[in-house]
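Hi V.,

You were right to ask for the full record rather than a summary. Here it is.
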Amino acid sequence: MTDELRRLLDCRQENESIFLTLDQGEVLELALSSVPANLPEIGESISSPLLAEIRLAAERKQVARRVFAMLDRRLMPLARLRQKLIDREFSEPAIDAVLEQMGQQGLYSDRVYAAAYCRDTLAGKLVGRRYLEKKLWEKQVPSNIARDVVAENLDDETESNLAHRAAEWKWCRMGGRLDRKAEEKVARYLVGRGFPTGLVWKAVRKNKPESEPHFDGEGEF
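Predicted structure:
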């Protein structure tokens, strides 16, 4: 196979981008930091290996622009972000290079996503660590990252307070039932919300009303 050659017709800078104009009407936009050191002079030919390097750098620029646009609308785990980029027919080498660089620079990663998810969920739901870890796992966040981030965002004292609030709320909806079956129902509810068994029964018994409760029909809080 004959090596593909292109001639460099123009090179101009706009802000943090470099635009390379090649023959046959091809224009490539590269990040300023991605311009190869061995770029030929205007009018000279670009070898096939260097052309492949330049095109990959230009594709990384497009991928990075698309990533920031997507994350500006909604945060998502890397696995889903990567698949969306593949669906848009970007190459996997370009995608992986951009996502790896963003992680190294602290711009975005599964850890960043998981922390944001924990904060948003805890702001509106009475849940425990297991609930958060399970949801992050379902969203394809690696289990070790999910576990570490959840622990950082939900300490023992806070989880205990949430369990007691959840138990109090559930008891208010029991319609006056205070027997063993009612306790088990409240306990199952707390387990489903991701609280550990030992904490569940403490919360169930401590918040069990002494007389028939009254529920006013308002929301969870």
